[in-house]
Specification:
The protein is mostly helical. It has 2 domains: 86 residues, Uncharacterised protein YqeY/AIM41, N-terminal domain (Hypothetical Protein Yqey, Chain: A, domain1), CATH 1.10.1510.10; 55 residues, Orthogonal Bundle (Arc Repressor Mutant, subunit A), CATH 1.10.10.410. 77% of the residues lie in helices and 0% in strands. The protein is built from 7 helices and no strands. The radius of gyration is 18 Å and the shape is globular. The chain starts with a helix and ends with a helix.
Length: 151
């Protein structure tokens, strides 16, 4: 379904001559194709395509930070626009409260008591947050909460 949406949006971007959207969709489709050919021509499902999109967003966020560091506002603005376009293909982001509730539930389910249990909690939380929250943010939240528990 996501693949069909990308195809339809590509055609629409071509008709409307929306350069940024067109470029972003082409890049995503190329990344999906590369992923499929890397794994013996298997067809990616929606979840795998979303993982590719998350990776594309992460790359752009890293670039954005670098562009802002060297004060290249033109490139930073382009990166922000590309992130916005890519975000349309992901599920709605989790609110901080919902994310905190997921972390609390995972901590209770795993019986975690200290930062040493970070891996177990992350293994429980990440599948539920994939595409809906940044992994780094989730990790920091889990680490903070586990540090509070061990005090």
């Amino acid at each position: 379904m996501l693949r069909e949406q990308l195809d339809a949006d590509l055609k629409l971007a071509l008709r409307e001559r929306h350069a940024v959207r067109l470029s972003v969709i082409r890049q995503v489709k190329a990344a999906v194709l590369a992923q499929e050919t890397r794994h013996a021509r298997m067809t990616l499902d929606d979840q795998a395509i979303q993982a590719v999109i998350v990776k594309e967003i992460k790359e752009r966020r890293d670039s954005l930070a670098e562009f802002e560091r060297v004060r290249r506002e033109d490139l930073a603005a382009k990166a922000r626009e590309e992130i916005e376009e890519l975000s349309h293909y992901l599920p709605e982001a989790l609110s901080p409260a919902a994310l905190a509730a997921l972390v609390e539930r995972a901590i209770q389910d795993t019986g975690a008591a200290s930062v040493r249990d970070l891996g177990a909690v992350m293994a429980k939380v990440l599948p539920e947050t994939r595409g809906r929250a940044d992994g780094r943010t989730v990790s920091e939240l889990v680490r903070e909460r586990l540090a509070q528990l061990s005090q």
